[in-house]
Design goal:
Layout lengths: L5 H12 L1 H22 L7 H31 L2 H20 L4 H29 L5 H29 L6 H7 L2 H12 L5 H6 L3 H12 L5 H12 L14 H16 L2 H14 L4 H29 L1 H24 L5 H20 L4 H9 L2 H32 L2 H22 L8 H9 L19
The structure holds beta-D-glucopyranose.
């Protein structure tokens, strides 16, 4: 059998990674649509209740996603990774249509809740599926494609916002079109997933051995796959695998580490910038057109730097990228916080504030953007992978919701500058935690990471070559 080209694996990966488009599109679209929605339904003012309602219209997606993430483990186990991704495309479509045709704010909230549900399920299952269909040497890059799709979705949404703001000036109509464009990513994902294979690891979990064997042969491009099959069977036959095992002494540190990575990803304030970008740029001194252009620039930097991340993740490894990103982000957040706190918005101040936002996005994109998805897909043993990843994803959404719900409140109560300084402090704590606990998993087959875990290696050493004596972290 002819070995599959790396290009073929990247193509397969790109199809499943399209789930990230839904995620990115929705995150980006609300930043442009929200002011028109508020205008259409007469939501105005700066008092705490209005801020909370405005925050909720944004935060209802992370809320739905949190619910979706909670159920995602069960979906991945029962329906399988592939079919679950197809269902999420349909749920997203229902949410999109509901929001686009909404006659009242309640319908927008309902539609966005559905979109959130779909995003929450797919943001856990897509990285899992990608990790299970890719060979170890390019697994980091293939999972990073999911993050790349998120950033493309974001850029697509920023472009959509710009086009419909300029093209349809009617503020009661343009946001409907902005939401409506969401039909495209959901259709792409649904049609794409129809062509994709089942995860061979899920097939073995379901005892569909002959199908698993055939799929693995195609994915690895060789006839002799006995070694790989034996390793997967070993994972499946290992004792345990029940949900509560995640809270055992062996697995709980893993769970905490994956959870913490997502918590710090969100507490870096990335979505304060993604959801409220135009407001941040306004405070930095930009006018109406300047705000939209700056947002587009942000989208381009995000995509560009994520492409670099995809390219170097399997060469540099997860840890170096993570640390470069953390340090860069801390510097940018501190500079931004100090500049936004400064009342005098001269052009020099504006220039440095915009530059720090763009650099922050760049550092995030090569590190905390994709790496948490990669690590969470790699460290959990097969039998509890779905549940472990579901819990880690909950941190993503719970803290996403926290940031989106509180940003407007923080901004009006303590000021935007102090809000970003708060994110800088959280990110510094994140750096220390990651330094101490995150393992380097580059180039290690999933089953070897699992056997390291069961041979008693500490968390930081899970990615070592098997057979090395257990070391302490
Ligand atoms: C995060 C999202 C964020 C996006 C920005 C993702 O990794 O989970 O919350 O909006 O990156 O690129």
């Amino acid at each position: 059998m002819k070995p599959p080209s790396t290009l073929h694996t990247y193509l397969l990966g790109s199809v499943a990674a399209m789930a990230g488009l839904l995620f990115g599109f929705d995150t980006g679209v609300i930043s442009g649509a929200q002011s028109f929605i508020f205008e259409t339904f007469g939501i105005s003012g700066d008092d705490v209740e209005v801020s909370a309602l405005k925050g909720f219209i944004v935060a209802v997606v992370p809320l739905g996603a949190l619910l979706g993430a909670m159920g995602s483990g069960l979906c991945a186990q029962s329906f399988g990774r592939r079919r679950s991704l197809m269902y999420t495309a349909l749920i997203f479509l229902i949410g999109t249509l509901t929001a686009a045709f909404a006659p009242s704010i309640h319908w927008i909230i309902t539609g966005r809740l559905f979109m959130g549900l779909a995003i929450g399920i797919s943001a856990m299952i897509a990285p899992m599926y990608l990790s299970e269909i890719s060979p170890a040497d390019i697994r980091g890059a293939i999972i990073f494609l999911f993050q790349l799709a998120i950033t493309i979705g974001l850029l697509g949404a920023f472009t959509t916002n710009l086009i419909f703001t300029l093209w349809i000036p009617d503020p009661t109509l343009n946001w409907r079109w902005m939401f409506g464009v969401g039909i495209i990513p959901s259709a792409l994902l649904f049609i794409g997933m129809l062509q994709m294979p089942y995860s061979p690891r899920w097939l073995i979990l379901k005892k569909r051995d002959s199908e698993a064997e055939a799929t693995l042969k195609t994915l690895l491009g060789k006839e002799d796959i006995q070694l790989e099959l034996n390793e997967i069977h070993e994972s499946v036959e290992r004792e345990g695998g029940r949900f509560f095992e995640l809270f055992s002494r062996r697995l709980f540190p893993l769970l905490l580490m994956a959870f913490a990575l997502f918590m710090f990803q969100q507490l870096s304030g990335i979505n304060a910038i993604m959801y409220y970008g135009p407001l941040v740029f306004e405070q930095a001194g930009l006018g109406d057109t300047g705000k939209l252009i700056a947002q587009m620039a942000m989208g381009v930097v995000n995509v560009g730097m994520t492409v670099i991340g995809v390219w170097i993740i399997d060469k540099c490894g997860r840890r170096p990228l993570l640390f470069i990103g953390f340090i860069g982000m801390i510097i940018c957040l501190t500079v931004l916080g100090l500049l936004l706190g400064n009342q005098s918005q001269d052009s020099e101040n504006t220039f440095f504030a915009i530059t720090s936002v763009l650099c922050f996005i760049g550092f995030f994109a090569i590190s905390l953007g994709g790496v948490p998805y990669i690590i969470m897909s790699e460290v959990f043993p097969l039998k509890v992978r779905a549940h472990g990843m579901a819990i880690a994803s909950c941190a993503n959404w719970a803290f996403n919701m926290f940031v989106s719900e509180t940003f407007d409140i923080f901004r009006t109560q303590i000021g935007m500058g102090s809000t970003f300084l708060f994110y800088a402090i959280c990110t510094t704590i994140g750096l220390c935690v990651a330094w101490r606990f995150v393992p380097e998993t580059k180039n290690r087959p999933l089953e070897e990471i699992e056997s390291n875990l069961y041979s008693g290696k500490p968390l930081r050493r899970l990615g070592d070559a098997p057979g090395n004596a257990p070391t302490h972290n």
